[in-house]
Write a structure and sequence with these properties.
This protein is an alpha/beta fold. The chain contains eight helices and nine strands. Helix 3 packs parallel to helix 4 and helix 7 crosses helix 8. It is globular.
């Protein structure tokens, strides 16, 4: 089965990375949600894609209590996505103002997930920065981890496998049937981002992709269901 993962929640219906978007993802039947985590100046883990707010304030330089109301805390977001798989993307890009070579956000995310009551199988932690996801895995080896990447080829598969991660998350335009097969042979799951095209989603599912991250989980779920109708009951 291909999991449908709501990108920043059901972000076509609600403001992205908000409690409303995560609750909407639950309501439309997504299998999971993807969200972005950063830290405030006082060390709070908050859910926001960009390092800088619309008003120009840098999140890592701002106390959590001064952030806009729509910026959720990580624990609140996990609660809002109750029952779903949650892909926590740790944001830590070297060209952004909150870059931290010590990966304090990864350390904090590990601590939050460790104290949560849910089974660890509910979580999937990813990052575009290999060192960041490596750091998280060293702290929480029981939680599945993934590397985000623009491509999916033999070199990427070998790298992810060598570092002991469970999955690779390539851009959907770079995925081929043969690259999914290669990843699966290496024991890796493949979750692709960000596919909003129903026909492409059906093609990817037909190739055996494990997850599709999308802004329109209701549309993609319906497309996959229509492409794979239940077997007829024997007469």
């Amino acid at each position: 089965m291909t999991n449908v993962i709501a990108h920043r929640g059901a972000s076509r219906d609600e403001r992205e990375n908000t409690l409303a978007a995560f609750r909407r993802a639950v309501a439309v039947g997504a299998h999971g949600v993807e969200l972005d985590v950063r830290r405030s100046v006082d060390g709070e883990l908050v859910v926001h894609h960009d390092a800088v707010l619309e008003n120009g304030r840098v999140i890592v330089e701002t106390p959590a209590g001064e952030l806009p109301d729509h910026v959720a805390r990580l624990d609140e977001a996990l609660d809002a996505a109750a029952g779903l798989i949650v892909n926590v993307e740790i944001k830590n890009a070297p060209d952004e103002p909150d870059f931290d070579p010590d990966d304090r956000t990864a350390v904090a995310v590990a601590a939050v997930l460790e104290r949560r009551p849910e089974p660890v199988g509910r979580w999937l932690v990813s990052s575009f920065r290999l060192q960041t996801v490596d750091r998280f895995r060293a702290l929480a080896p029981d939680v599945a981890t993934a590397l985000l990447t623009e491509r999916l080829d033999d070199d990427v598969v070998a790298l992810v496998r060598r570092h002991g991660h469970a999955a690779v998350h390539p851009w959907f335009g770079a995925v081929k049937a043969t690259s999914i097969e290669a990843a699966h042979r290496a024991g890796l799951r493949v979750n692709t981002w960000t596919c909003n095209d129903p026909a492409r989603a059906v093609e990817l599912a037909g190739w055996g992709i494990d997850g599709i991250v999308t802004d329109v989980p209701n549309v993609i779920r319906a497309a996959l269901a229509a492409a794979d109708p239940p077997a007829a009951t024997p007469a």
